[in-house]
Design goal:
Chain C: It comes from Owenia fusiformis (Polychaete worm). Chain C: It is found in: Endoplasmic reticulum; Golgi apparatus, cis-Golgi network; Golgi apparatus. Chain C: This is Trafficking protein particle complex subunit. The complex is a heterotrimer of chains A (180), B (145) and C (195). Chain A is an alpha+beta fold. Chain A has helices spanning 16-33, 37-63, 71-87, 130-141, and strands spanning 92-94, 102-107, 144-152, 161-170. In chain A, strands 1-2-4-3 form a four-stranded antiparallel β-sheet, covered by helices on one side. In chain A, a hairpin with a 7-residue loop joins strand 1 and strand 2. The longest helix of chain A has 27 residues, at 37-63. In chain B, 36% of the residues lie in helices and 21% in strands. Chain B is globular and about 45 Å long. Chain B has a five-stranded antiparallel β-sheet with strand order 2-1-5-4-3, with helices on both faces. Chain B has one domain: Beta-Lactamase (2-Layer Sandwich), CATH 3.30.450. Chain C is an alpha+beta fold and 195 residues long. Chain C has helices spanning 60-65, 83-102, 144-160, 174-191; strands at residues 5-10, 17-21, 24-29, 40-44, 47-50, 53-54, 72-77, 114-117, 120-126, 132-138. A five-stranded antiparallel β-sheet of chain C has the order 1-7-4-5-6. Chain C has a three-stranded antiparallel β-sheet with strand order 8-9-10. In chain C, strand 2 and strand 3 (24-29) form a beta hairpin. The longest helix of chain C is centred in the middle third of the chain and has 20 residues, at 83-102. The two termini of chain C are 19 Å apart. The chains are: A alpha+beta (180), B alpha+beta (145), C alpha+beta (195). Chains in contact: A-B, A-C, B-C. Chain B binds chain C through residues 4-5, 20, 22-25, 27-28, 34, 37-38, 41, 44-45, 47-69, 71, 85, 87, and chain C through 1, 4, 22, 36, 38-39, 78, 81, 85, 89, 92-93, 95-96, 99-120, 122, 136. Strand 3 (61-65) of chain B pairs antiparallel with strand 8 of chain C, so a sheet runs across the interface.
Chain lengths: 180, 145, 195
């Protein structure tokens, strides 16, 4: 992912490294601006959310994926179509809860964290938290209320990066009074 | 053949965009009320179709036709609703509406940070692109009256 | 058309999200082995469900939520329309018909004559006297206009000309039913286009 030599010449595509560096600069600036790392996580989540509610339209327009009627289907589409389209990776979908309302995405290689070494004293920081926001925002736009958080992170010495998604409820369309 | 007008609603029922080309009859109520009526009708017709359907629906309601016009409906998974009115001889406009969504709406509204989501679209670029696209369609060919 | 019904034995917890819709417990999210979103709970462990409760009086959602009741054999399927719902839908169409005419971008438009979805078509013919004939067909059915005209004739012949039929009341005439049936059967034989 990080060491691509013969880059494609598509003028609309930017280098993955530039993207990673930009994100890194953003996070480190946020850390300077906010004293509390929980606030940084919150800001990243908020930014991600704002990206997600827009990105979903691009996703739907390009992928031709219809509405999901099952959370397993949702998980598959997120991993095989969504992550593939925007980050070029396909996380493994695993660790289903018995009720089928929770699963994990395992990322072997997180493109946001190339070149990143987390210094000591940042144990509360969820470096790639923007992803949670993106997922949350995008899913909310397709009527899925989902809780998203990092469970494990390679930056913190875990073996794998794990994002946990929990289905909360379906958001029914806003309908005028008298209809259901 | 001709195209009359286009409505775009977001999932909360806000009319994001309305424009007309060869419309010859006004509904006799204010635009705001007309938008509400149109959105309400679309919701009812969707619910009507899903309750009436003998088997499971996939896309659900697609279009209806009266003696004078045909209403084409397209809804994205994110709840964005496109309503295009044409004359009754226009065939299936689904692909065209999909084009408007993916090539004009997403490119010029979603990717334009100036355009706030859930509010009326004011982008001139969007309006021009949409107008050019509609006028280029074979279904548009204005009839002389 | 065959009515889709699926019975499956579930263990706790249920992998489907159910919701209350029009006094029916229906699947809101999640799909399994032919059970689809929108299907209603028709019965549990062989006991038929009526609306939100079972025939023995227990509440469907409470039975399903209680872990002690598992394993549960739950039957799902598309809900059949009751006479009451039919009347509600007819009323809905009546207003949609009128709004369709009001929102017309072209002058002097009729109301809705044809609704298309991905699985059925609805044809409506309104006579000059304001009676509506509505036929729901397969999307491949052709020649529905002539069927509608035929139905108008059947209505005129066997309902209106029957001195014991009172106008604007539900039609309960055997001859009408018989002729209606034969008109529909004839249309079915000739009307499905061979695609």
């Amino acid at each position: 992912m990080s060491r691509q030599i013969g880059r494609s010449v598509d003028p609309k595509k930017v280098s993955g490294e530039l993207f990673t560096l930009t994100y890194g600069a953003l996070v480190s600036q946020l850390i300077k601006d906010y004293e509390n790392e929980d606030d940084v996580n919150k800001q990243l989540d908020k930014m991600g959310y704002n990206i997600g509610v827009r990105l979903i339209e691009d996703f739907l327009a390009r992928s031709n994926v219809g509405r999901c009627h099952d959370f397993r289907e949702t998980a598959d589409v997120i991993s095989k179509v969504g992550f593939k389209m925007f980050l070029g990776i396909t996380p493994v979908v695993t660790n289903w809860s018995p009720a089928g309302d929770e699963f994990s995405l395992l990322l072997e290689n997180n493109p946001l964290t190339d070149f990143v070494e987390l210094p000591d004293g940042h144990s509360n920081l969820s470096y790639s938290n923007i992803m949670c926001g993106v997922l949350r925002g995008a899913l909310e736009m397709v009527q899925l209320d989902v809780d998203v958080r990092f469970e494990q992170d390679q930056l913190k010495g875990d073996n794998i990066t794990e994002i946990r998604l929990k289905f909360i409820k379906r958001l029914e369309d806003a309908v005028p009074v008298g209809e259901d | 053949m001709t195209i009359f007008n286009l409505y775009i609603f977001d999932r909360n029922g806000t009319c994001l965009y309305y424009t007309e080309w060869n419309r010859r009859n006004q509904s006799g109520i204010s635009k705001e009320e007309e938008f509400k009526l149109m959105y309400g009708m679309i919701l009812s017709i969707k619910s009507f179709c899903s309750r009436l359907s003998p088997t499971d629906l996939k896309d659900g309601f697609l279009s209806y036709r009266t003696s004078k016009y045909k209403l084409h409906f397209y809804e994205t998974a994110s709840g964005l609703k496109f309503i295009l009115n044409t004359d009754i001889n226009a065939g299936n406009m689904r692909d065209n509406i999909q084009q408007i969504y993916s090539n004009i709406y997403v490119e010029n509204v979603i990717k334009n940070p100036e355009c706030k989501l859930g509010q009326q679209i004011t982008s001139e670029l969007f309006q021009t692109k949409l107008d050019d696209y509609i006028r280029s369609l074979p279904q548009f060919a204005t009839k002389l009256s | 058309m065959p009515r889709m019904e699926v019975e499956k034995t579930f263990s706790y917890p249920l992998e489907l999200t159910l919701k209350n819709y029009n006094d029916q417990i229906v699947v809101g999210f999640g799909q399994r082995d032919g059970i689809k979103v929108g299907h209603a709970v028709l019965g549990i462990n062989g006991i038929a469900a009526q609306g939100r409760s079972l025939e023995d009086g227990r509440d469907v959602l409470e039975v399903i939520a209680n872990e002690e009741n598992y394993p549960l054999a739950i039957k799902f399927g598309r809900n059949k329309l009751s006479t009451n719902e039919r009347l509600v839908l007819t009323g809905m169409f009546h207003s949609l018909f009128a709004i369709g005419s009001q929102l017309s971008p072209e002058t002097r438009s009729s109301g809705i004559e044809l609704i298309e979805t991905d699985v059925f078509k609805l044809h409506c013919m309104q006579t000059l006297t304001g009676i509506k004939f509505i036929v729901v067909t397969d999307i491949r059915q052709v020649g529905v206009e002539s069927l509608l005209k035929k139905l108008y004739e059947v209505y005129a012949d066997y309902a209106l000309k029957n001195p014991f039929y009172s106008i604007d009341m539900p039609i309960r005439c055997d001859l009408f039913d018989i002729n209606l049936q034969s008109a529909i059967e004839q249309s079915e034989r000739t009307g499905i286009s061979n695609v």
